[in-house]
Amino acid sequence: MNIPGSGGMFFHQVSAILELQKIFSVNEDTDLSASEYFVVCLYRVLLRDFNDIPDTGEAEWIRFGFCYCTTRSQRELLAHHYIQLASHASLNQIAEAWKSDELLELMATKDIDTSSLLSHGIYPRRPSPETIGIYRLMSEVTHILNGCAICPCNSFSCQFHSKEEPSLCLESEIDYGFHETNTWERWQLLNFYSSLFKNPKFHPRELQKARRDPDTKVFEAYIESLVPGFRRALINEHLTDAMFPKFARMEFKGEHPFCNCAIHSMVVSEGTNLGPIGYFRQMRDERNREQT
Fold it and tell me: Which top-rank group of organisms is this from (predicted)?
């Protein structure tokens, strides 16, 4: 079996960095603004020879709109538009357009047709606080099940996390049934959602729409349409509360939280990625950039 980079050289990552430096005329000493840094991180992924599409374990999945895509082909389509844009615009132009949510307009000025994106409800931007909730949950589930003890999702200091559930934003904890669950119930829910998100018929916005419907039965009806008999699969008479799962019994109130704890890439141990100390430094720098 021919596995690229199997010898430990990870040329696909190194070549992406070299290509990035050539396209945008930058190097490791270039002083980047916060938005330029995030754009560079995106192209470090897109310019690889493989593993070149952001997924739920990477910050770029939310930051640059890949969360709007429901299929691999849609993610490839969005990636293609970003690659096209890099050939027609400077790093600063792309960064400023992303920062002001004007990437669609920038693509239009560069004669890049975005109709195929818009027809599928795909936008090259980060979701708003009102719509990000379900995408944040998808990232949180991926990060938690990754099993990394030092994942920045585990935030006791964030005002949008409860002391009982430091790995989930309060909106996720309350709206999706995690509040006041025991350890076994929590683990069941995490694995259930992970499986649900992989269902070919699953659509994030449909689930969020169902969750916010005034009729509390709509949420469970949507899940039931994808996973018939899901309650029986979740319940264990010896390990779960009689009311578990507590879907639609509680609802998050107030303004939608601007919580960024899940918007980061997972710790991995391959190629040019950093070890734990370097990873923590990178996460600290990213948080500082988010606030600028």
Answer: Eukaryota
CA 69, chain centre distance (Å)? 11
Give the whole-angstrom CA distance, residue 68 versus residue 62: 8
How is residue 127 annotated by DSSP? P
* Per-residue confidence band for 158, with pLDDT thresholds at 50, 70 and 90: confident
Q: Are 79 and 116 in contact (CB under 8 A)?
A: no
Give me the residue label for tokens 């699969």. Answer: 233
Q: Enter the tokens of residue 37.
A: 């840094």
For the stretch 93-101, contacts whose Cβ atoms lie closer than 8 Å and that sit 24 or more positions apart, written own/partner, are 94/39, 95/33, 95/35, 95/36, 95/38, 95/39, 96/35, 98/35, 98/38, 98/39, 98/64, 98/124, 98/125, 99/35, 101/125, 101/126
Cα 172 versus chain centre, distance: 14
Q: In this structure, what is the dihedral angle of CA atoms 151, 154, 155, 156, given to the nearest 10 degrees?
A: -140
**What mean pLDDT, rounded, does the chain reach?**
84
Instruction: Give the global pTM.
Output: 0.83
pLDDT tens-digit map of 130-149: 999 999 999 999 999 987 76
Instruction: Round to whole Å and give the CA distance between 240 and 223.
Output: 20
**Tens of pLDDT along 236-278?**
877 877 778 887 666 676 677 778 888 888 766 554 454 443 4
Where does the pLDDT of residue 285 fall: very low under 50, low under 70, confident under 90, or very high at 90 and above? low
Residue given tokens 């025991």 in the structure block: 182
Domain ranges within the chain, ordered by starting residue: 11-126+266-290, 133-234
DSSP string for residues in 252-268 = --SSPP---TT-SPPP-
